[in-house]
Design goal:
- The complex is a heterodimer.
- By secondary structure, chain A is mainly beta.
- In chain A, strands 2, 4, 5, 6, 9, 10 and 11 form a seven-stranded mixed β-sheet that branches. In chain A, strands 1-3-8-7 form a four-stranded antiparallel β-sheet, with no helix packed on it.
- The termini of chain A are far apart.
- The relative contact order of chain A is 0.33.
- In chain B, strands 2, 4, 5, 9, 10 and 11 form a six-stranded mixed β-sheet that branches. Chain B has a five-stranded antiparallel β-sheet with strand order 1-3-8-7-6, with no helix packed on it.
- In chain B, a hairpin with a 5-residue loop joins strand 4 and strand 5.
- Classes of the chains: A mainly beta, B mainly beta.
Chain lengths: 117, 109
């Protein structure tokens, strides 16, 4: 299996521009997570989907952030307009969630390194 | 208030030493994950455990549910073990992960 695939790996953009990050989860997984990592705040959950449906988006910072999962094999995280404080590493992760089991192994992508100047 | 606390924040060891990283968590955490992140790299899940002990190669993870404490041990440490190790808890009733701040491990040859 190729693992969780994210693109782009690196992006530098100007403030005010739209940024779209993409993720392909592991085939067969039913849950997808978007995380953000910064030096100041560490890793934070932004949103997660189960069976393509957003379950918890309480971590999405503000209306400038949106995420979609149109099908089981693709998700996007969009920032519009971008700001310098959005500079971070954005990780996508996927897992096969079995409700009767507490905790499930989660697989992370390599991350998208975003710099907004 | 973070629900997952890790210690130490930084750890330097000599090659071959036995290493322990600790993690304490609060009520409501139903499972513990240990993650590894190399500099500039992605995040790899090492262990997920809700009870007992797991071993993979030179890595051992234990959890004490009563004390709400988990440890990650590395035996015969090697410079390639140098990385940030992150403890994360699954909040019961959801699949949200709550992360510790990480332990930066440096193993010198």
């Amino acid at each position: 299996d190729a693992g969780v695939i994210q693109s782009p790996r690196h992006e530098v953009t100007e403030m005010g521009q739209e940024v779209t990050l993409r993720c392909k989860p592991i085939s067969g997984h039913n849950s997808l997570f978007w995380y953000r990592q910064t030096m100041m705040r560490g890793l934070e959950l932004l949103i997660y989907f189960n069976n393509n449906v957003p379950i918890d988006d309480s971590g999405m910072p503000e209306d400038r952030f949106s995420a979609k999962m149109p099908n089981a094999s693709f998700s996007t995280l969009k920032i519009q307009p971008s700001e310098p404080r959005d500079s971070a590493v954005y990780f996508c992760a996927s897992s096969f969630i079995r409700r009767q089991i507490s905790g499930n192994t989660i697989y992370f992508g390599e991350g998208s390194w975003l710099t907004v100047v | 208030k973070n629900e997952v606390e890790q210690s130490p924040q930084n750890l330097t060891a000599q090659e071959g030493e036995f290493i322990t990283i600790n993690c304490s968590y609060s009520v409501g955490i139903s499972a513990l994950h240990w993650l590894q992140q190399h500099p500039g790299g992605g995040i790899v899940s090492l262990f997920m455990l809700s009870s007992g002990k797991k071993k993979h190669g030179r890595l051992i993870a234990t959890i004490n549910i009563q004390e709400k404490h988990s440890s990650l041990h590395i035996t015969a440490s090697h410079p390639r073990d140098s990385a940030v190790y992150i403890c994360a808890g699954t909040q019961g009733g959801s699949e949200k992960l709550v992360f510790g701040k990480g332990t930066k491990l440096t193993v010198n040859p």
